[in-house]
Amino acid sequence: MYLITLPQDLISRNEVILRQNGEYRLNHLPQALVKTVINTPTINGILYKGYNQVSAQVTSGSHNSVELTFELSIPSISAATFAYFRNEVRQKLGSGEELQISTAAGIGPYPPPKAETRMASYGVELFAKQIIKEVDINLNSFDFNGMTASLIIQKILQDIRLLPVEQIKFSGSIALNSNLTTTQSISVYLPISTVVFSDGLTIPFSAYASNAVITEIPIKTVSIPYDFWA
Fold it and tell me: Rounded to 10 degrees, what is the CA torsion of 58, 62, 65, 71?
């Protein structure tokens, strides 16, 4: 399992990098992004694909069941920002191309699933199908070079740079079948894809997920209810 650890000061560090490059946007209002001229070298970088480690508390229940309680705080773009970004991609590539990306990411007719629960997969498929075509998406990281990309792809990379990253917080519980008889804290792994530009600007597609991997009771993949992220 490839783990991705995000810097604790990611949000403030991103703001510093944007200011240093003369790039500005309004926080939490993706529709009000201020479009600026971005230097092409800053749209090079690496896409990382893996898992984000978070903590959860397990409490034993009755009839071979346990309750898994999450208290999450993860840097990520928000659900509203993701919806905005998909619309930007759709306008630039066309609805047919964006549909292919969404379908490959497992985003089907709504409902279900909610598109944001496949956010990490969407980031990977966008790069694999448009930005680094024919890349092996089983790899944990892919280099990308915006300097050699088409003008449309350069604009999409510029849009990614200006997506506001927030500290996303959620809490909720999931019932699991298990014979665990003690209360303990365990690690839970959520899928994440992270764009790291050459100047260090980091845009994570994380927080929301339709499934999680748990290693302690024993290793298993569990489905996360959609209303958990509401």
Answer: -30
Distance CA 228, CA 52 (A): 17
Whole-angstrom distance, CA of residue 116 vs CA of residue 94: 20
CA proximity to 205, closest of 153, 165, 172, 170: 165
Name the nearest CA neighbour of 228 among 80, 136, 113: 113
Mean pLDDT, rounded, for 95-118: 87
Tens of pLDDT, residue by residue over 70-93, are 788 889 999 999 999 999 999 999
Q: Which of 69, 76, 7, 52 is nearest to 189 (CA)?
A: 52
For 3-16, the pLDDT digits (tens) are: 999 998 999 999 99
